[in-house]
Amino acid sequence: MKTQRTKGLDPMKPLARFAALVLLVTAASGASAQLTIIRNFSGGTPPANAVGGGDLQTIFNAAADLWEAAIQDNHTVTITYSWAALGGGTLGVHNLTSEGGTPHRETAGTIRFDNDGSSVFFLDPTPRMNEEYTTFTATNSTLPGTINSGRVWTGATGLASGRTDLFSVALHEIGHALGLSSANDAFVAEAGDSDVDLTSPRAPAGSAIPVTSPTNAHVAIANALMFPSIGTSLRRTISDADIMANAQISQFANVTLNPVFPTAAVQDEIVMSSVGTASGLYKLNWMSSSSTISPVVQGISMKCVMTNWGNGSFLTATGANLLRVTTAGSVSTIATLPSTSSGQALALNQDGQVAIGSLSAADGLLHVNYTGTGLQTLTTGNAYNGICRSRDNGAYYAVTFTPPTLYRVTTAGSTTSLATIGTGGLSGICYMPDQDRFAISDLSNNAVHYTSPTGTVLYSTPTPAGCQAVTYHEKYRSLYAVTTQGHVMRLSTSGTIVQSWQYTGANFSGVDVADDRNISVLTKGDRGSQVTVRASFPQSPSQPSCLGLSLALRPGLGFASGRYQHIQPDTLFFLTVCGALPFWTQGFASTTSAGGGVAASFTLPYGLSSGMMIYCAGSAVNPAFPEGLDFGTVEGVRVQ
Q1: Alpha-carbon gap, residue 602 to 375, rounded angstroms
Q2: Of the segments 1-5, 133-137, 230-234, which one has the largest average pLDDT value?
Q3: Is 402 helix (H, G, I), strand (E, B) or coil?
Q4: CA 579, CA 340: separation in Å to the nearest integer?
Q5: What CA–CA distances, in Å, run from 506 to 185, 301, 371, 509, 612?
Q6: What are the CA-CA distances from residue 532 to residues 21, 301, 573, 602 (Å)?
């Protein structure tokens, strides 16, 4: 194992919410092509003398989000992080565990944060804001081109005063995983002369960013985030020198200087359906260990839940109806199910069709449009407790309770038995695309089984009584499982339970990850026709604003490769959509009306498949907002 040790880091707080009068087009997480940091929390306890009330997971995820906003090249790095006793005043340690590819980059690493109490950490409960610090200072260096080399918050107040800012330490350690690591062969090749020489398209080309030595991967500029030491009572954010040094080492060509946090991370929230005494729909922000489960709707027995792409709502089924529930808690019936069906599970396919698993073998799998029209029976003969999609877009995968069997059901209704799993009681299933395996909840045996696509059990995780349903979030490599006893669990891909909550009295029957809820309006358009999208920023009238676009390959199941460009107000930018559909989609910048509205029109290209989504993201300048940007209500377009 190659190791990069980082000692004596100071509290630095990233310029997360700096009110810059520059527009950055931002989309729901995952909508644009950019750096993806897979975050695996492997446990440990915080030091007893830590103050502030925050937690490592919230802080680490905020730091990773900021680095993702800075690097816009397609690259995925997996970081496993934890608390550990490091000793000697060491605040954090980064270990490179794998590297390679073209360009040569780190692909996996570990980061440990010290919990031996030798340093007193400030655990910021709101790491995306800098309210504990009173003074921001930006500094430049001539290398020989002029480059920003420091963004520092000082004047710590309250509990931040006199303590080391864990958020800054997390930013620094993640920076090592992006290139500045003495274990990284690309760094060794570049830094033999004790500097990083910037070459085009990295700017300012011809400049040399000094490093402490060829064997110590730190930026030798005192105010830089990647400087080898840090004091107390301050916070550092990512400087341009930090970004460009990593960009040169890892050959990143597309960066955002002075990055800000993306729009609110709606994917951080999960939703659970419940039957019985505490029936209804519940939600939980799992990113903070202090989060609690709270109800969205109560008094309606909901057997399953699925986020409904593109229109800010959820789909859920009772025994008799298919319901739509908005994030505000409004409930409407969109389809009446057969009296014998007892709708038990939901899955969405690429054409906007919803499959409904039924506890009645006579009804089997039902099919209905996501709007609730066109209800039909897809196949009969089995009572399906759980159903999901996979990379195999021509089929659903479903499980039955007795016998405990995994089935493949095509969209034409053909059914194939793949495997018998366990001794009985399969109740839910989800697909883990980056792992190419299924997770299946076992209600009778209180477990989650991880299986191959053909149903071979790879390993299992014991759970509290009544494990009912599962869902997976690919970006964070997190599996969520719920039980009939009100438990909500977050599991790693290896099957370890890393977090757990409980809502006393609830009987959770379904779970899903909330996604794309910032898109609250869904319009439709024919290929070749002109469509208009609108955004509303009522608190930011007459301000520079913009709308950006991204193409979804399948509704709710990820996006085509593309990149949001950094733009100035009142200019145009372009989003490249790569892969199977190479074409340019335009973005628009203008000024909001006196009432805070803005609209833009574009033509839907020919060649798009029916059911594809154009996701729209918008922002308007508002220095009063924490990020300096107001992210308002925007629209999505579904291709007819």
Answers
A1: 33
A2: 230-234
A3: coil
A4: 44
A5: 52, 11, 29, 9, 36
A6: 26, 39, 17, 7
Per-residue model confidence as pLDDT tens digits over 51-83: 988 889 889 988 998 999 899 898 999 999 999
The separation between CA 252 and the C-alpha centre of its own chain, rounded to angstroms, equals 21
Can you tell me which residue has the tokens 């690591």?
Answer: 181
Q: Report how far residue 301's alpha carbon sits from residue 318's, in angstroms, rounded to the nearest whole number.
A: 6
Q: What are phi and psi of 535, to 5 degrees?
A: -135, 150
What is the token pair recorded at 148?
């920003």
pLDDT tens per residue across span 159-216: 999 999 999 999 999 999 999 999 999 999 999 999 999 999 998 999 999 999 999 9
Question: Considering Cα of 487, then 491, then 497, then 498, what sign does the dihedral take?
Answer: negative
Q: What is the pLDDT of residues 407-426, one digit of tens each?
A: 999 888 899 999 999 888 99
Q: Which amino acid is at 193?
A: D
Q: What angle do CA 259, 522, 387 make, to 5 degrees?
A: 95
pLDDT mean over 4-23: 27
Question: Is 54 within 8 Å of 113 (Cβ atoms)?
Answer: no
Of 48-52, 77-81, 220-224, 306-310, the least confident = 306-310
Question: Residue 244: in which H helix or E strand, if any?
Answer: helix 240-250
List of long-range contacts for 215-219, beta carbons under 8 Å, 24+ apart: 215/182, 216/182, 217/4, 217/176, 217/180, 217/181, 217/182, 217/184, 217/187, 217/191, 218/6, 218/180, 219/149, 219/180, 219/245
Q: Do the beta carbons of residue 632 and residue 536 sit within 8 Å?
A: yes
Helices (H) and strands (E) in the chain, counts: 4, 46
293's enclosing H/E stretch is none
| Residue in this structure with the two tokens 């050959």, named with its chain if needed | 251
Amino acid identity, position 465: A
48: its two tokens = 């007893």
